[in-house]
Amino acid sequence: MSRTTVTFDSAGIRIAAHLYTPGAPAAGPRPALVVGHPGTGVKEQTAGAYARRMAERGFVTLAFDAAYQGESGGLPRGLEDPAQRVEDFKAAVSHLTTRDEVDAGRIGLLGICASGGYALAAAGGDHRVRAVATVSGVDVARQFRLGADGTQDPAVFQRLLDAAARARTTAARGEHPGVLTMFPETAEQAGALGGEHGVQGFEYYCTPRGAHERSAKFLAWESVDRLASFDAFHAVPLLAPRPLLQIVGARAVTSWMAVDVHQRATGPKELHWIEGADHVDLYDKKEHVDRAVDKLTDFCATHLGPHPETDR
């Protein structure tokens, strides 16, 4: 298996990506997967891990940094623009269609966490996508509005919108608008702010377990009002008759969103539970990721063509 650095254009923004290619010889072009990272993540973290593992199973995979984040271009830095995030997935598909090693008729999407929601939205309107899979998938806009577990006091998001409005006015006056800090200084503070889910995120993004220098520790304030009216699940019925697989930790407080998607989907669909796993465990805990990759391999082999030769 080899990894190559590539770039492509997404609505005028340069997107940085890693292309993973199986090492075993192939009789012809291979099926491919676009792999999207979680909110605040980068391609070198869990998205890259899944991309590498699926390349070892015989698929060409492309893990990319979202616009405004990681090594990709775009200003302001740290902007979470849902429309652009959806466009990034479509642009990644476009890039794969230009590559000789890829069968343009056998491309799927794999979205992790926030990218799970964006992958659903992108595939709903892009018929080049043959199949969609998510791991710990969420609609990050719902998570902002309703909380990770869906029970957040509406006043919390209203206060964020107030702050975002003030930041826009500050920027209009030529002053620095500041940023929305995503992680506190300690796990205890993360728990006080976000409960168990907050601690899980802190332990991955802010400790040697999963930290990366380019992983976002803040978001631009205008991300908040851009997310306010976004609905990643609106296009789910448009996926049919294409298949959908959602892989979810049985202990994930975010799993209610996957259930919502499953109920909306009208085509072939599966909600696959990983027992013992929480939302973030599926990012990197080997015993859980192994099971997720096995399920993804079966799904992609079935729906993106013949089972590829493995290259371990």
The gist of it:
The chain has 312 residues and is an alpha/beta fold. It has helices at residues 46-56, 82-97, 114-124, 140-146, 154-172, 187-205, 222-228, 255-264, 281-284, 286-303; strands spanning 2-10, 13-21, 30-36, 60-64, 102-112, 129-135, 179-181, 218-220, 244-249, 269-274.
Features:
312 residues; 8-stranded mixed sheet; 10 helices; 10 strands; 39% helix; 21% strand; globular; disordered C terminus
Topology:
Layout: E1 2-10, E2 13-21, E3 30-36, H1 46-56, E4 60-64, H2 82-97, E5 102-112, H3 114-124, E6 129-135, H4 140-146, H5 154-172, E7 179-181, H6 187-205, E8 218-220, H7 222-228, E9 244-249, H8 255-264, E10 269-274, H9 281-284, H10 286-303
Parallel strand pairs: 3-4, 3-5, 5-6, 6-9, 9-10
Antiparallel strand pairs: 1-2, 2-4, 7-8
